[in-house]
Amino acid sequence: MSERTQNRSQKSERRLAAQLAERKAAEAKRRRQAWAGGLAGVAVVAVLITVFVTIGRNADGDKDQTAGAPSAGASAGAPSAPAPGAPQLPEGADPALGSKPTVAPGTGELKKLSVTPLIKGTGPAVKAGQTVTANYVGVFFKDGKEFDSSWKNGEPVPFPIGVGQVIPGWDQGLVGVTVGSRVQLDIPTELAYGENPGGGRPAGPLRFVVDVLAAQ
User: Fold this and answer.
1) Residue pLDDT, tens place only, 38-65
2) Cβ neighbourhood burial of 181 (10 Å; 0-12, 13-18, 19+)
């Protein structure tokens, strides 16, 4: 091989080597850029996940706080509503008037009207001609069997007093009783419905326990 030919061959080898080196450098650069891009993408994804998790936790916390917070209409110091069916008692009345009394039978022979105060009210005295609002339980005097009660309907009953609109035992026994009182009325037959009243009304002597809640 001549010297000229040899020089040309060496130059070609150097150019090839240089080209290979450039290609390797370019390929290494592309790999570095790809790795950098991949790492950047992973970092972005991680940031987004962190943001979403944080927002989700905050939202859950807000929900928990909302669920546990008292509403404006349910303050801790607000009084509770009265129980269904409980009567509206006059101011200062004995709380016992809010419960139905137990009425026992009488003893002996009942010959005259008897008014027995069980709870003394502090309100004004009932006057003839007024409308009284009362709860009552009525039983047969001899055996204590209940035949009527306003408590069954869950509300007191208004009625005029002292004007002949109720049985004489009520007209006579309730006038003068103070509002807020509970009284026991033992009523003989002639001041009740009589011996044979008919119409499903109770016969014979009767016992009533009456709560006087208002008089107007």
Assistant:
1) 444 444 444 344 434 343 444 444 434 3
2) buried
Which entry of 141, 161, 193, 211 is annotated as an active-site residue? 193
Tokens matching residue 160: 């005029």
Contact 171, 161 (CB under 8 A): yes
Q: How many other CB atoms sit within 10 Å of the CB of residue 147?
A: 13
* Residue 87 banded pLDDT, cuts 50, 70, 90: confident
Does the annotation count 55 as an active-site position?
no
pTM of the model: 0.61
Active site residue 167: yes
Task: For residue range 201-214, list pLDDT tens digits in order.
Answer: 999 999 999 999 99
Q: Is 162 helix (H, G, I), strand (E, B) or coil?
A: coil
- 148 in active site: yes
